[in-house]
Amino acid sequence: SLKCQPRQCRRVSRRVNMFSTQSSRKVLIILVLNILQVFCLPQLQEPQTNALAGDNFVCPEDFGDFEDPLQCDKYWRCDQGVATPHLCDDGLVFDKFKADGREDPCDSPYVVDCAKRVKLQEPTFPSEICPRRHGFFADPDITICDVFYTCKNGRHTKTPCSPGLHFDEKTGTCAWPNIANRTGCGKKKQASVNGFVCPVEEVLNDQGMTIPHPSYPNEVDCQKFYVLSIGTRVTQGSIFFTTTQMEMVLKTLAIGEILPKLPSINNWVL
Predict the structure, then answer these.
(1) 0.70 exceeded by the pTM?
(2) What is the mean predicted confidence (pLDDT) over 65-79?
(3) CATH architecture of the domain with residue range 52-122
(4) Most-buried pick from 1, 50, 183, 210 (CB within 10 A)?
(5) Is 64 left (phi over 0), alpha (psi -120 to 50) or beta?
(6) CA–CA distance, 222 with 242 (Å, rounded to integer)
């Protein structure tokens, strides 16, 4: 076998030691990188992973309440970048202007612009009067347009509009009929008296207001006329009226000069 000279052996030994040192450094670097990858990188990525929890929602800020991009009554509460889904009470929607952390960030849909976020949760315990737990709703009878119901926790309170106004389902308030634009109002045939059936059309005064209790002449007996009491029966009077006089009575009733003095129009028989 070949044998190296002492000087040559020392050179080979130095090269081997150098190689071993470089290899050890590479191994050490690889080991450190592996440790960093196992223990450090998940911690750096943790906020982003938590922010993606549930429906892939990403917290725009570490703290606060934020609207869901699709559902108007759903919002996300972010705490240290962790997103948690929440739902408003049935009938209410998320209001970003109330999302200051000091109060419930939900409000009536009439004061919140949901824009394209049209999705809503399924109603909880709906009824005929209250289709949702909270809100303002029209009478389920489409022919009755001058009342509405306020629903709170599923319990309703009936409220009539002022005479001549209709409940506007777009704003949750009472408005003029041409603004509320309801269909089917007053089209239910009223009870008849001696063959008389209440006309379907509403009677308006000169200002365009609906006359709540219009009167109609009796075509057979000119000493009698009919007073329409909406929602109840037709009352028959027994005083003589010409057509001109009837028009004067209607105008007088419309401006409230006579009607407030009457004790009960339902029993008005002269």
Answers:
(1) no
(2) 93
(3) Beta Complex (2.170)
(4) 210
(5) left
(6) 7
